[in-house]
Amino acid sequence: MKEFSTPLSRKIGLRYPLVSAPMFIISNKEMLVACAEAGILGAMPSLNARTIEGFKEELAFVKNATDKPFAINVTIGLTQPERLMQDVQACLEYEVPVMITSYGNPTQIVQAAHAAGTIVLHDVINLRHAKKAQAAGVDGIIGVSQGAGGHAGTVNPYVFIPYLRQHLDVPIVGAGCISGGEQVAATLSLGAELAYMGTRFIASTECGADDRFKNMVVDSDHLDIVYTDQVSGTHANFLKQTVPDPERSEGEAKKWKDIWSAGQGVSQIHEVKSIGQIVEDIVREYWDTVSRLAG
Ligand SMILES: Cc1cc2nc3c(=O)[nH]c(=O)nc-3n(C[C@H](O)[C@H](O)[C@H](O)COP(=O)(O)O)c2cc1C
């Protein structure tokens, strides 16, 4: 498959400017390796390992399995301070090529990461946080638009990506509802330098999600997604039928792992496939789109 790239994807060393975004509980080391071998950037949250020792074992696994780039997400405000610093240190010790910071101020992490040559991307849903992260020195801003899986923003990507570009000097990564090659072409056409996809990779064979979760992503469309702050206190998108109904007593409180987050991009996901096949499909769709637009 013919490669395509942007300045940021070349800086990271990717064959394609695509990211399998970090997903709490369900992204895993097998996904990171499969993404690396497919030429894209795979990411997982450090907290998917319950202990720092477990996290280090996962880093060692990935480093042994591939010499290509991968990314670790540190969720600043959601991680105990002691564990946060341990995770950052482990990333530096194992020479993690890219760190993705979210839910907090990345200043300290950027300083430590840059001293070790690690690239830092920071995830935001508004310009205020993006400006703070730019001032902290991050290498790119991930603009999470309306309809994204996880903690999504409220601004449409047609507006949000150009708006971030207009007000910032660092590269922008487009996130939210990107499930196929047409949407990759669209986000790159708006000036994003990477396409950041979570929901699409839930429906991958390597993903650690329950098969019922994967099948629900395949069987759902955007009308099955609900944007609510009732689950975590912060607005996020979920598969409607997994969210407890506050009107009804559900007996035992539903466990976190049974409330499934996904974005409106479920409408364009029709099959569970291996990451290698997903990347091949997206790249083919991207080139078909580009040649269609070229007339
Ligand atoms: C199940 C699930 C879990 C997520 N967990 C995290 C997380 O732990 N940290 C994070 O920064 N983003 C998390 N996200 C957000 C993704 O990294 C990414 O921003 C989002 O999936 C992009 O939108 P899309 O799902 O429409 O492609 C999660 C998303 C989903 C669907």
Order of strands across the widest beta sheet? 1-2-3-4-5-6-7-8
As an assembly, this protein is: single chain
Distance from N terminus to C terminus (CA atoms, Å) equals 21 Å
- What ions, cofactors and ligands are bound? flavin mononucleotide
Count of alpha/pi helices: 11
SSE string, helices as H and strands as E: HEHEHEHEHEHEHEHEHHEEH
Largest sheet: 8 strands, parallel, barrel
CATH topology: TIM Barrel
Secondary structure class reads alpha/beta
Shape field = globular
Q: Class, according to the CATH hierarchy?
A: Alpha Beta
CATH superfamily: Aldolase class I
What fraction, in percent, of the residue positions are helical? 25-40%
Outline the secondary-structure elements:
Elements: H1 7-12, E1 18-20, H2 29-38, E2 41-45, H3 52-65, E3 71-75, H4 81-93, E4 98-102, H5 107-115, E5 119-124, H6 127-136, E6 140-144, H7 157-167, E7 172-175, H8 181-189, E8 194-197, H9 199-202, H10 211-219, E9 225-228, E10 236-239, H11 275-293
The structure holds flavin mononucleotide (FMN).
Flavin mononucleotide is lined by residues 21-24, 26, 45, 73, 75, 102, 123, 144, 148-150, 175-178, 196-200, 261-263, 265.
Which keywords apply here?
alpha/beta, 10 strands, single chain, binds flavin mononucleotide, two-stranded antiparallel ribbon, 295 residues, globular, 15% strand, TIM Barrel, 8-stranded parallel barrel
Q: Would you give an account of this structure?
A:
The longest helix has 19 residues, at 275-293. The chain is built from eleven helices and ten strands. With 295 residues, it is α/β, with parallel strands linked by helices. It has a single domain (7-211, 262-293), classed as TIM Barrel (Alpha-Beta Barrel). The chain has an eight-stranded parallel barrel with strand order 1-2-3-4-5-6-7-8, surrounded by six helices. A two-stranded antiparallel ribbon has the order 9-10. Strand 3, helix 4 (81-93) and strand 4 form a beta-alpha-beta unit. It starts with 6 loop residues before the first helix and ends with a helix. The structure holds flavin mononucleotide. Residues 21-24, 26, 45, 73, 75, 102, 123, 144, 148-150, 175-178, 196-200, 261-263, 265 line the site of flavin mononucleotide (FMN).
